[in-house]
Write a structure and sequence with these properties.
Blueprint: E1 2-7, E2 30-31, E3 37-38, H1 40-50, E4 57-62, H2 63-73, E5 79-82, H3 88-101, E6 110-115, E7 118-120, H4 123-137, E8 142-147, E9 158-164, E10 170-176, H5 181-189, E11 193-202, H6 203-212, H7 219-222, H8 234-237, E12 245-250, E13 254-256, H9 260-265, E14 271-272, E15 275-277, E16 285-288, E17 294-296, E18 302-307, E19 310-315, H10 322-326, E20 335-338, E21 341-350, E22 356-364, E23 372-374, E24 378-386, E25 388-393, E26 396-401, E27 405-408, E28 414-418, E29 422-430, E30 439-442, H11 445-458
Parallel strand pairs: 1-4, 1-6, 4-5, 8-12, 14-16, 15-17, 16-18
Antiparallel strand pairs: 2-3, 6-11, 7-13, 8-11, 9-10, 9-11, 10-12, 18-19, 20-21, 21-22, 22-29, 23-30, 24-27, 24-29, 25-26, 25-28
Length: 459
């Protein structure tokens, strides 16, 4: 059995810590067994390895999340990159074509799909292993895992069973999306299960779905025409049209940490970052990524979350509504993690004459490097405020350290590699300060050094 983890989402339900580049699964707010802060994706990836499933798993994600995934899981994390975000059906189809064409999986291989951010115990992953036999022993086209409800929730979709087969397998009668409270009580009375977004099928099943739509099943052919795939969920495109579906009940702990009220329930401390809170408060939390302190007094059941993207103050019951309001704000992400480290936007100004100035603080991890690159619409000035490393400027290498100021005119080739952990204040100035104004010559440092050597000897 192969696993495909879906890592997507626009990152708005946990604003302001999450954004388009740093979705909820990347927030380091959970404690691992050693008390170290980890993200949801780090927690799940560790659990997969502990359950013996890490070696057969791949992650389907968008370009915007690749750097974050590699930063948190390592450069060798197995990733299939979507050319653009097009919902879960295209993402699953592309991942399956990759497994078939590139990794040479057979058409009878069982493929399990799961979100990258469930909050569960390791027993959940043992239950996922049961999907393979359940699918192979039955004539079902899809096998799902359903969580036995612990209360009548209006937040989750429900799997409504029909007949009970052997080995606890349930034949699925229909699905019900986010019922009201009375409907949820009624559904639980019918032994309905929470739909946790985990399901399995044979690889040939999804490839047939591509053929029905007259789309290629080969990865190299599907990738260039990815925009032609229907921009719909897998539920809409496939599940709702599939007749033979079974479900396996799971009665262990499971939780969707998609909103501030559910996430804070699993946080080990009430204050993360700089902050103080009056001692009598009940069920309130501060999550602060800024360098200024937050004081919370006299408010129970409240979340105060602060990051370079903004500040949120909300009653926990109202926190799921934040997405509705964030859509009105717009603006670029002010903090991102990259494969080489992280950056934080300190200030952005656009002058009436059209010139823009953007100031960033970059943290570059030791033995990592920025790509060798060129900008055609901006110049940059780098001031090294911590650490030392090697700077490349127009194919010339030199050692740099704290206090050095590096001027990079428009059109000049440049890169930097950290020998120790480095921090750099970067001042961009130009007519259009966008990520698209980057022409990358090389990501690999050894290749960058080789380019410099070739240019030196050619002279």
């Amino acid at each position: 059995m192969r696993l495909v983890l879906l890592s997507g989402g626009s990152g708005k339900r946990l604003w302001p810590l999450s954004n388009d580049s740093r979705s909820k699964q990347f927030l380091k707010v959970l404690d691992n067994q050693s008390g170290v802060k980890v993200s949801m994706v780090q927690r799940v990836w560790s659990q997969l390895k502990e359950s013996g499933l890490g070696g057969t798993s791949i992650i389907a994600t968008s370009h915007a999340q690749v750097d974050m995934l590699k930063s948190q899981l390592g450069m060798d994390a197995p990733i299939v990159i979507e050319p653009e975000r097009r919902d879960t059906f295209p993402a699953i189809a592309l991942a399956c074509s990759f497994l078939h064409s590139v990794q040479k999986c057979s058409l009878d291989e069982v493929i399990a799909i799961l979100p990258v951010d469930p909050y569960v115990g390791n027993a959940f992953f043992n239950r996922i292993k049961d999907l393979e036999n359940a699918l192979l022993e039955s004539d079902a086209e899809l096998a799902l895992i359903g969580v036995k409800p612990t209360f009548p929730s209006e937040k989750y979709g429900y799997i409504v069973p029909g007949n009970v087969e052997e080995n606890e397998r349930l034949m699925v009668d229909h699905f019900k999306e986010k019922p009201n409270l009375n409907e949820a009580v009624e559904l639980i009375g019918k032994n309905a299960l929470w739909n946790c977004g985990v399901f399995a099928f044979k690889l040939g099943f999804i490839l047939e779905e591509l053929k029905k739509r007259k789309l290629p099943t080969e990865y190299e052919k599907l990738l260039p025409i990815y925009s032609l795939l229907p921009k719909n969920s897998f539920d809409y495109e496939v599940v709702e049209k599939t007749k033979k579906i079974i479900a396996l009940p799971y009665d262990g702990y499971w939780k969707d940490l998609g909103t501030w009220n559910t996430l804070t329930d699993e946080m080990a401390v009430k204050i993360t970052g700089k902050g103080v809170m009056s001692s009598e408060l009940k069920n309130s939390h501060i999550v602060n990524e800024l360098d200024i302190p937050i004081a919370l007094l006299g408010l129970d059941d409240v979340v105060v979350a602060a990051s370079p993207d903004g500040i949120l103050v909300t009653h926990k019951d109202s926190s799921p509504k934040v997405k509705e309001y964030v859509d009105r704000l717009g603006g670029r992400p002010m903090y991102e993690e990259r494969r080489w480290g992280w950056y934080r936007v300190l200030e952005y100004t656009k002058y009436p004459e059209g010139n823009e100035v953007l100031i960033k603080r970059l943290g570059i991890t030791a033995n990592h490097n920025l790509s060798y690159q060129v900008h055609y619409k901006r110049s940059e000035v780098w001031t090294i405020v911590k650490g030392e490393g090697v700077f490349v400027h127009n194919d010339q290498l030199r050692h740099v350290r704290t206090g050095d100021v590096l001027h990079i005119p428009l059109g000049d080739k440049h890169a930097i590699r950290a020998t120790t952990d480095m921090e750099v204040i970067e001042v961009q100035s130009g007519s259009q300060l966008i990520e698209e104004d980057i022409y990358r010559i090389s990501h690999d440092w050894a290749e960058t050094e080789e380019i410099c050597k070739e240019q030196h000897f050619s002279k």
